[in-house]
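User: Fold both of these, please.

Assistant: Here is the first one.
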Amino acid sequence: MIDFAKKPLFLAPLAGFSDLPLREVVKNFGCDVTISEMISANALVYEGKKSLKMVQKSPNETPYIVQIAGVDLNNIKKAVEILNGIDGIDGIDLNCGCPVPKVVKQESGSALLKNLDHLKRVIETIKTTSKKPTTSAKIRLGFDEKIPELIARACQDAGADYIAIHGRTRAGGYTAKVDYEAIKIAKEAVKIPVIANGDINAQNADFVLKTTNADALMIGRASIGNPWIFAQIKDAKSVSGALKKQIILAHFDAMIRYYGIQGVSIFRKHLHQYSKGLSEAASFRDEINRIDDLDLMRLKIENFF
């Protein structure tokens, strides 16, 4: 379902941002593959209601991948069995890159990069249990040191159909310079498709593809307040103000459909990003921070943008 020959664009899983409304919007404006926010396998098994809402997809999300995080093989298996019973999921991705301390403390996320044997067992558990078309992993270059080829081979040997590589180690967080050459090393070490991730924007997308020789690109933080980036990369031209306004309003409407009236206040964080760099942005943010009325918020968005 994912045609890597066409160098597809993925939306990266972003905690607190890549929910159903954002994914619905980017799918309409150039994104090829969407991925859920990271979902804890333990939470899916023991606190199902909230996690199951995070799994929900928009009708336009095809292909749609669900990303899970975990380390306990029994809970991983149970989580995958739950996802097997949900239609519309085209693949299950394992998070092996999250650098957040509370995730690492549980030996999950990027902590799996310290124990490649167990990383392989987790991927193998997903692969053998899943009834979905694809199994994949999102990794970093390493935990403290860069070992991209070893990690990539471990994922391939465990049965991953493709991998996405964030071009930093866990120690590099989100501030170290992205090492695209290291992604290329991983790409050369395996036969499965490799997706490049990390500080990719409309200006450097072609450079990243050529440098890494990757089969696809995954866009993360550059899409926040800028979901038209997928259209920019594909068309290699700027997006008109009219289209930007259309996208922002479509995003707002999708938030209301998904969250109800609560979507008005939740959308403020997106409006803060959308308004960055624009004239009168500070006063606009101050104003919307006090608005809870749906119609008034929509009017303010229409007038400002």
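And the second sequence with its predicted structure:
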Amino acid sequence: MLTKLEVDGFKNLLNFEVELGPFTCIAGVNGTGKSNIFDVIQFLSLLADRSLIEAAQEVRGVHGERLGDPRDLFWNGYSRSDHKMSFAAEMIVPGEVEDDFGRPAKPSITFLRYELEIGYIPPAGIEKIGRLSLLAENLRHIKLGDAPEKLGFRHNAGQFRKAVLHGRRAGTAFISTAIDADGQPIISIHQDGGSRGQPKPAAASRAPATVVSTVTSSDDPTVLAARREMQSWRRLALEPSALRTADRYVDPRQMDPTGRHLAGTLFRIAYTDGDFERVYARVASRLADLSGIDVRELRVEQDDVRELFTVQLVESGGLALPARSLSEGTLRFLALCVLLEDPSVEGLLCMEEPENGIHPANLNAMVQLVQDLAVDPYEAPGVDNPFRQVIVNTHSPAVVQLADPQDLLFAEVDIRRAPDGTMARALSVRPLVDTWRDNRDTRTRAVSKADILPYLTTPPGAQLTLEIA
């Protein structure tokens, strides 16, 4: 679980800070940069797996290219000479993970703070766009005694906090950065044994990837747990074409961020549960929350001749409809219903505008569904309460009115001082007054209901009734 995110110098995020709970809804008008929050989370997740340049190229570019330009990640493109962006993520990591060889590993402590600083080196020789450079990387523990203050969102200390926070660490960081005599950063990994283990240093200047991404074995269990946590941060971009595609028997049975492998995933969930009818009935019951959807039964058809899985919806009249016949909004809702049933899906899920394609009469069902996807912080995480975190963004007044005020943040553009001393437009997110985030960050003013009237009132000129001549 990502509990706090700090960013400086990434796109329009300058001296940016946000605290996150199990479920967060970020609302704001188009153009404020809400999606940049998802971009930075995606970037950090990619950096746990890939090289600096590969991660940068996969993040959404500003010009819509298939591969992003790494220079576009910096707050003002590449107009300055001293490019630098820094990140800090406070997180609760899994209590047990597996390394790349299938061996179990337990971190020394599950509450961590990860810090990263990345620079830009202009092109030289054969290079034409330059490259990213690793300037600093640190991973430290957060004292469990500080958890009541650190975790500001409402939760049950005995059932939730004590279940996810455990372990101990004294003194040495797990990853640290020092500057050598030549002024170059040297990054060291410190073993979980603390002073008993010798650090493993490496020069950062030519490092192609972060140190976290290189840890693959159980020899460094806490660093590995941090890596696994960041790898679990996903950005859902459910695509109708992917959701409509049948699954081959040889395909993966884990739904990807586009929604591909929906049928195979639902079959695997039902098979693992051991009661196909019960699982299919739960998904069908949730899908029936959508008004206008006539659902008697939902199942996964197995075509042994073509070796295909397909999702079939059976209406009350007996008509069977394949997934490809459903509307885009219904397909997205169905995909989230399947995710809700999948206890193997943990980590952070980011969703852009979940209201897209949903009839206004069904917004309440959609908002309730995305809220239910997140872990219940009043119960211990487990099979019936997967340790999932959800962040959505929206510009819909209806979604804002349906969300719990404790979960709301409002995106605005502020004028802030940029790294070069100039004043720049930067994203800020503000909580509602008297909610748990209020007064926790003195730099950010909370908003009142009067400030968000556009989200609470009918726009001028709107027709509340239709008169037919």
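Residues 1-232+348-469 form one domain.
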